[in-house]
Amino acid sequence: MTTNFLERAIDFVKRATELDRAQHYEEAFDQYIKALDCFKLALKYERNESAKKTIATHLEQYLTRAETLKKHLSQGERRTPVPAGGGAAQKTQGSGGGGKDEEDEEKNKLKQALDGAIVREKPNVKWSDVAGLETAKQMLHEAVIFPIRFPHLFTGKRVPWRGILLFGPPGTGKSYLAKAVATEVDATFFSVSSADLVSKWLGQSEKLVRSLFELARENKPSIVFIDEVDSMCSARSDQDSEASRRLKTEFLVQMNGVGNSNDGVLVLGATNIPWNLDPAIRRRFEKRIYIPLPEEPARERMFQIHIGGTPNNLTPDDMHELARRTEGYSGADISICVREALMGPIRRLQDATHFKRISGPSPADPQRVEDDLLTPCSPGDPEAVEMSLMDVPPQKLATPPVAVHDFFEALLHTKPSVAPQDIEQHLKFTADFGQSD
Ligand SMILES: Nc1ncnc2c1ncn2[C@@H]1O[C@H](COP(=O)(O)OP(=O)(O)OP(=O)(O)O)[C@@H](O)[C@H]1O
To answer: Are residue 277 and residue 303 in the same domain, yes or no?
Structure first.
């Protein structure tokens, strides 16, 4: 298996370096990425230690080159030459002169480690997908979207916010909102779960934090989203391990931008337990926005968003009723309830013992109407034919629409997940330190 992956990796590398030399950087980058995927698999399955080392060295080498190309491409320069810069192309071209010093090597390793801990792809969540949370959205516009789109608005003493904390009970859309920011804004987005950072990289994590901020500064305008920021930044205490103390100090230093300018870098934090944050770190988040449980109109919008285009026969009154019945539910609770309800028609199909013919849009081509589709019905229906789902030809199956009783049924099984005491604590924190949505 290893040999196979290794061979494939080498094939991709050959193609990549040829394209690289011919300055076809976009295609070269694609081939490097494919090569890296194969190298990673080869590394995973290789048992021999010295072979592992060789593969790891290749991996690092081509990763560096791919990163250089990516940076170059993202600056919109498709064909201008990219210096080899100690990366793969340099070595394969045999142009010598490499010799990165140890510090660079260390930095590269950390950047690779970061690659595993951070997500850089743009999520696909739009502003309009986020129900309610108007204050938070407006604040994020001020902090993120305006400074990038209209930099001249932020001159002189008017400076954009550098640190924003989103806090509130679980499942209220803090991460979801951060994803919407990432999708809507033309900035590099780094998303890191601080629980991951602490658990996987303890000992190394302060260096990772430094590298994360370095990367963010290199790629500005950028947004660093730190989920569960409390696990990295809880109040300092005598019981803290040396590693955790170093991590907190480093985070403070980086957020201050000491010795570096943090212009163009916004730190967005999210937490369910803001009262656990270290006070010094809490202060670095200049804006602290409470993300509460959704009000009735927001809940109604959530039902609409999560149902989307799924065929249903819900009336506006049904929607109001659902919103009314879900007081105390978080956005996450509602999305689970909707998923459950959307399965209702599938269950009806599975349980059906009788079907009848109806006309409707063809499952294969919704533009065409067919008059011999089959849908479940009660055994007493005059047109009922006894059969089960498996007897229905797939292209003749008409899926029943989701109905309001599917939601009522789902609500019996999905209960609100946030406890009232939790809300009280959040309200107290908001009164003391926050800003309410
Ligand atoms: N305001 C909202 N509008 C639309 N959907 C929402 C909203 N809030 C939550 N959801 C739904 O709930 C899911 C979970 O939300 P999310 O992960 O953002 O919550 P969170 O506040 O970050 O929770 P946690 O603190 O547990 O990480 C989202 O993927 C989304 O489907």
So the answer is: no
Q: Is the pLDDT of residue 283 over 50?
A: yes
**155-201 confidence digits (pLDDT tens):** 888 888 889 999 999 999 999 998 888 888 878 888 887 766 666 65
Any atom of ligand 1 within 6 Å of the Cβ of 176: yes
pTM over 0.80: no
CATH code of the domain covering residue 168: 3.40.50.300
Cα of 174 to ligand 1 centre, how many Å?
6
Is the domain of 85 the same as that of 139? Answer: no
Ligand 1 pocket member 335 (CB < 6 A): yes
Q: Which two tokens stand for residue 102?
A: 């140890």
Greatest pairwise CA separation for the chain in angstroms: 86
Place of tokens 């919008």: 301
Domain residue limits at 317: 296-416
Does 143 sit in the ligand 1 pocket, CB within 6 Å? no
- Taking residue 88's Cβ as centre, other Cβ atoms within 10 Å add up to 26
Domain boundary among 32, 59, 94: 94
Shared-domain flag, residues 23 and 141? no
Q: What is the ipTM of this complex?
A: 0.95
CA 263 to CA 376: how far, in whole Å? 61
Q: Is 302 in the pocket of ligand 1 (CB under 6 A)?
A: yes
